[in-house]
Amino acid sequence: MNVLLIGAGGREHALAWSLAASPLIGKLYCAPGNGGIAEVAECVALDVGRHTDIIAFCHAKRIDFVVIGPEAPLVAGLADDLSAVGIKHFGPSRAAAQLEGSKGFTKDLCRELSIPTAAYGRFSDRAAALAYLASQPVPIVVKADGLAAGKGVVVAMTREEAVAAVDACFAGAFGAAGAEVVIEEFLEGEEASFFALSDGRSALALATAQDHKRVGDGDTGPNTGGMGAYSPAPVMTPDLVERAMAEIIRPTIDGMARRGTPFKGVLYAGLMITTEGPKLIEYNARFGDPETQVLMVRLKSDLLAALLAVADGVLASFDVRWHDDAALTVVMATKGYPGAYQRGSEIRGLTQAGEVEGVEIFHSGTRRESDRILADGGRVLAVTARAPTIGEAQARAYRAVDLIDWPEGFCRRDIGWRAAGKGRVS
Ligand code: AMP
Ligand code: GLY
Q1: Are residue 338 and residue 379 in the same domain, yes or no?
Q2: What is the pLDDT of residues 248-274, one digit of tens each?
C-alpha cells in the first residue's frame, strides 16, 4: 500500500524508518520530509497547511493511507478533511486533537471525569487571573491555553515570575494561544512520557519512555522540545502502567467517545509520578519527539499494521511486541538552541557514526545538498542506540556522537543519567 507521512522531524524520520520496513508498504512518501527521511522515503515539497493540495497529491499518487506526525495539522483539521473525501489516515480529528490544542479543554475534561491532575483555574481576564494567583502558593505553573510550540509554559518559583507570565500571555507573547491562561498547582515527582494507541474505543499501551526537556546537563536551563530520551522508563513499573491506563487513559478515551468526539490516534500523556500516583501534566495528540526514536528501534511488530488497526477500529484484537533491549537517543542541536541559531552548517562523519553497533541516526532538521548534509533547524539529529541495557545503549549512542564532525552543534552529555546510573559521559 502507498503511504504519505506528514512531517519533517526526527519523530517522522523514525516513523518513516519503521514504515519503510513494513511488509505491507508499497511506495512511501513524506511531506515535506528532511535530509535523512529522503533515505527511506520520497520527500515531496507539499505545503502541509494546504489540505486541498494534500488531497490532490493523494489522488494523483494513489495514496492508501496518510500518517499525520505533528500536532499543527491535527489541530488544523487535516484528519477531518481526509475523512470527508474518504482517505484513510492515522491521527485524530480536530475535535479530538483539542486534548492537545487547548489545555483548558483537557483540564475541564479531567475535572469532569475525576482524572488525577494538578488543581487549576482557567482565565481569559487578567484581573481574575491575578486574583487567583494571589490566593495560591508558589511555585505555581502558568500556561498559555493553545499551541505554543512548547514555549507556553512557565514554572514560576516566585509570585513575581507568575505575574510576569500571566502578563506575557495577555500581552500576546503567544498570539491567540495565550488569549486564555491556565494556572495550575505545581506537581512534584518524576516525569514520564506515556503513549497509548486508541481506535476511539480500546486503548493499547506502548512501551514506556522518558525524555529530557531541559537544554543543559543535570536537567538545567530552558525547556526545549526534548534533548534526549530512553525506553523503557524504570519509573514506569507495570503497576504504574496499569494505573495510568485505568485512571487516566481509559477514562479519557471513554469520555471522548461519549461526547461524540472519539480519539483515534496516539494519545501521549505527560505524567508526573507523584507520591499519590500518576497525575496528568498534559496531553499530546501525537507521538513524542524524541521518544518516538527510541520506541521505533524497540518495536518488533509492524508499525504500519498497528496504525492501520487504529484507523480500522480493530485495535481490541491487536497487540504489539517489543525487543527486550533498551534504547537511548541523544539529540544534537545547533549551538544557540532553544534560542536563536544559524542554519546551513555542514555535518560530517554521519556514515561512520551510523556504523557503530546498534546505532540508528535519525534526522530532525537537516537538508541534503548534493552529497552534503546541512543543519537546517534547532534540533538536528537524534543519535539513537539499542543495546541490552540503558547503560550500554548510552555508551553506544555517545560513541556515535563522538564520530560526528559538526563544530556548530552540541548535545547534552548525560542523557539517561537516572536510568543508566551514570552521569556525564565524557
Ligand atoms: P507541558 O508543555 O505542559 O508539558 O509543560 C512543560 C514542562 O513544564 C513539563 O514537562 C513539566 O516539566 C513542567 N510542568 C508543566 N506543568 C507542571 C505542573 N503542574 N507541575 C510541575 N511541573 C509542570
Ligand atoms: N518530547 C516532548 C514532545 O514531543 O512534546
Answers
A1: yes
A2: 999 999 999 999 999 999 999 999 999
